[in-house]
Write a structure and sequence with these properties.
Strand order of the largest sheet: 1-2-3-5-4
Bound molecules: guanosine-5'-monophosphate, zinc ion
Shape: globular
Helix content: 10-25%
Number of strands: 5
Order of helices and strands: HEEEHEHE
Length: 115
């Protein structure tokens, strides 16, 4: 648990969130400010500030998160029409919460390129 990290607090249950998945390594919950009909955040329970702070020891965790995203996408009915997974990283990536997270966006067509 990282001091003053809002996503660590959500993972620990100290700040409420609409949880949709939890296991020993990751949690998933609805984004408080959704930008698509489906907007889920998947985070590791372990505090990792961003993708650049991941290490070889995180390999299994990172792979696990991808398979959890697949399961969530299936549960939320996104598997046929598709969806987008985004990892905003640091300033130019538009990252606002410094705890690694995957955005899972679906329920409408996602434009490309992003803004
Ligand atoms: P980022 O901009 O870092 O890629 O994404 C952070 C996301 O976290 C944003 O989409 C924002 O709406 C969401 N967010 C920020 N604070 C909270 C919160 O307290 N609860 C929930 N559920 N989502 C949050
Ligand atoms: Zn954290």
């Amino acid at each position: 648990m990282h001091q003053d990290c809002i996503f660590c607090k959500i993972a620990a249950g100290e700040i409420p969130a609409k949880m949709i998945y939890e296991d020993d390594q990751v949690v998933a919950f609805l984004d408080i400010n959704p930008v698509a009909p489906v907007h889920v955040l998947v985070i590791p329970k372990k505090h990792i500030a961003n993708l650049m702070d991941t290490q070889p020891e995180d390999l299994a965790l990172l792979g696990h998160a991808m398979l959890v995203i697949k399961q969530i996408a299936s549960q939320l009915g996104l598997s046929d029409d598709g969806f987008r997974v985004v990892v905003n990283t640091k300033h130019n990536g538009g990252q606002t919460v410094p705890h690694l997270h995957w955005h899972v966006l679906g329920g409408r067509f996602m434009n490309w390129p992003p803004g």
